Amino acid sequence: MSKNVFRWALSYLRPYRGRLTLFLIVAVVEIVSGLLLPWPLKFIVDNALGSQPVPSWMNGLIGIFGSGTVAMLILGCVAYLVLHYASEFISVAHTQMQQSIGQRLIFDLRQQLFAHLQSLSLRFHLKRGPGETIYHIENDSYCVESLTLSGAFPLMSAAVTLGSMFIVLLRINYQVALMSLVVVPFLLWVNRYYSERIVERSEKVKEMESGVINFFHEVFTSIRVIKAFVRESHEQQRFKEKGTITLDARIKLTLQESLFAAMINVVTTGGTALILFVGGYNVYQKRMTIGDLLVALTYLASVFGPLVAMSHTFGNVQASVASARRVLRTLQTDPEIEDRPDAIEAPKLRGEIELRGVHFHYDDEASVLKGVSFTARPGQMIALVGLTGAGKTSLVSLIPRFYDAVSGQVLVDGRDVRDYQLRSLRSQVSVVLQDPVLFSGTIADNIRYGRLNATDEEVIAAAQAAYAHEFILRKPEGYDTRIGSEDGTQLSGGERQRISIARAFLKNSPILILDEPTSSLDARAESSIFDSLRHLMDERTTIVIAHRLSTVRDADKILVLDGGEIIGEGRHEELLISVPLYRELCERLAMGNLPPMPEEEALEAEAAWG
C-alpha cells in the first residue's frame, strides 16, 4: 500500500517535468558543493599548518596571495568562504524551487479533491459531515508534497550523497569507508520497525482530529440553539471528552515518533564514535592525515545529519502516508449519481413530472417511499403535506436526481430523469429551501448565483419580484452590501429568504421546488411573495412542501403522504372531507379556522378510511 501511495504521489510531478529537471540539477550541484566543503580545512591542516606537500597545480593559486604559510592560510580561508557562500546560495535556490513545486502539487491535489467531492452524492456528504471534508482538503492535501519533495527526494539525495562520499572515503582509507556503512542496516531496521506502527496510529489520530473539526462545525453552526438552551457548559464538556481522547492519542503518537528519533540518534552517534576511533587509529598509524580524518567526519556529519533530520520529520512522512491513504479512498469513491453513457442533453423542458411506482430508501434503512405515483402538468402547483418523516423531502429530491429511486420511474416530459445529463436537468430546476443558504459576498452576488451571467437590471428585477428590492435599498451599500463580512449588515431570516427566492426567480426554471419558502416571512410578506410566485408559476410546474393552509389552499393538487405512501390526492375542500389525516393536519398546525365536519360526512369519511 505504501509503495502504491508513493507512486501515486510521484504522478503529480508529471506536469512539472521542466521545473523538476532544474530542481534535480540544483540538487546535484548542492551535493557536489557538499562534497567540496571540507577540503579547504584539509588543505589548511595538512598543507598550510602540517608537513604535507602542496600539489603542484596549487602553486599558481598560492602565488596570488604571496608565498609561505600565510599565503596558504589566506588561500584556504578564501576557498572556505567561497564554497560556503556558494553552498548557501544553492541551498536557498533549492529550497525556493522545492516550495514552488510543492505548493503547486498541493494546489493540484486540492483542486482534484474539491472537484471530486462536489461530484459525490448528498448521501456521502451527509454521512461524512462538513468538518471532515474541510480537514480533508485543508490538511490531508499536504501529503503529496510531503511524500515527494519533502520525503522521497531527500532520501534519494541522502543516498546519492552517501554513495559519493563513500567513493571519496575509499580513496582516503578503505577501513573508514567500510565503517561508514556499518550504521546503514541498523537505520533500515529501525525505520522498518517503527514505520508500520506510526502509520497506523497516525491514521487513527487524523480521523479523531477530523472528528473534532466536525464537532466545531456542528457547535458554531448551532450557536443560536446552544445559547437558547443555555448549553454552553454541556458543549464544553463534550469538547473536553472528545479533545482529551484525541490529545492522548496525539501524545502517544508523538512518543512513538520521539522514540524513533532517539533510536536514529543512538545509531548515528555510535557510528560517528566508531569512525572517530578507526580514523584516529589510522592517523596514529600514519595511514591517513588529520585532514583526511576531518574530511571523513565532515562527510559523516553531512550524511548522518540529513538522516537524523529525516527521523525528526519521519512522523510527518508517515502521517502523510496515512493522509494519502485517506485521500486515495476518497478519490476512489465513485459518485453515486452519474450520467449514463448514453445520457442526452435535456432540451428546454416543459415541466411535466410523473412518478410511476417509485420506491426509495436510504442505504439499508426502511423504505421511505412505497410505490408513489402521481402526475404534475406544466403550470400546475402541487402541494405535498404530511407528518414529519412522511417522505416529502425525499420525494422532491428525486426530481433533480439528488438521489435515484430504488425502483420505479421518475419522468420529466415523458422521459426518465436518468436519461438526461445531470447538469442539463438540474439547470432547469429551481429549489428554494426552508432554511435559506447564502454565500459570502454581496447581496447582488447571492441573487446572481441563480444565473451567473445575469445583468444588474435582471438582478434588480428578480429582487423586485421577490419583494426584496425595498429592504436591499435600505442597506448601507444597497446591492453591494456584503454578507458575512465583519462589518457586513446582519440579515433577518425573512430577508435571507427573500434573497433566496429572488435567486430562484432569476434562474427562471420550468420546474420549481419550494420547501416551505415563506416560513420565515410574516403574513403580509408571505401574501406578497405568493402573489409574485403565482405569476412565476404560469406554464411552470411547482412542487411545494407545505405546512400552512395559505400555502396549499390554491394548489391545483394536494398530495397527502403518510408513511411513504400517498393516501389522498385532490384539492383542499375535497381532502377535508375524504382524508381524516389531512383535516387533522390542518387543525393541528393551525392552518385556519375550519368549520365542523357535518356528521354524515364524518361518518362517511370514517367508513372510507377505517
Characterise the protein shown here.
There is one protein chain. With 610 residues, the chain is of the alpha/beta class. 63% of the residues lie in helices and 10% in strands. The chain has 25 helices and twelve strands. It has helices at residues 2-10, 17-36, 39-48, 59-64, 68-119, 122-128, 130-138, 143-146, 148-172, 174-180, 183-221, 223-228, 232-284, 290-331, 392-397, 422-426, 443-448, 456-465, 469-473, 493-507, 523-537, 549-552, 572-578, 580-588, 599-609, and strands at residues 353-360, 369-376, 381-386, 407-412, 415-416, 429-432, 441-442, 482-483, 511-515, 541-545, 557-562, 565-570. The strands form three sheets. It has a six-stranded mixed β-sheet. Helix 2 runs antiparallel to helix 5, helix 2 runs parallel beside helix 9 and helix 11 (183-221) runs parallel beside helix 14. It is elongated and about 115 Å long. It starts with a helix and ends with a helix. The model is unreliable at 590-610 (pLDDT under 50).
How would you summarize the topology of this molecule?
Blueprint: H1 2-10, H2 17-36, H3 39-48, H4 59-64, H5 68-119, H6 122-128, H7 130-138, H8 143-146, H9 148-172, H10 174-180, H11 183-221, H12 223-228, H13 232-284, H14 290-331, E1 353-360, E2 369-376, E3 381-386, H15 392-397, E4 407-412, E5 415-416, H16 422-426, E6 429-432, E7 441-442, H17 443-448, H18 456-465, H19 469-473, E8 482-483, H20 493-507, E9 511-515, H21 523-537, E10 541-545, H22 549-552, E11 557-562, E12 565-570, H23 572-578, H24 580-588, H25 599-609
Parallel strand pairs: 3-10, 3-11, 6-9, 9-10
Antiparallel strand pairs: 1-2, 1-4, 4-5, 7-8, 11-12
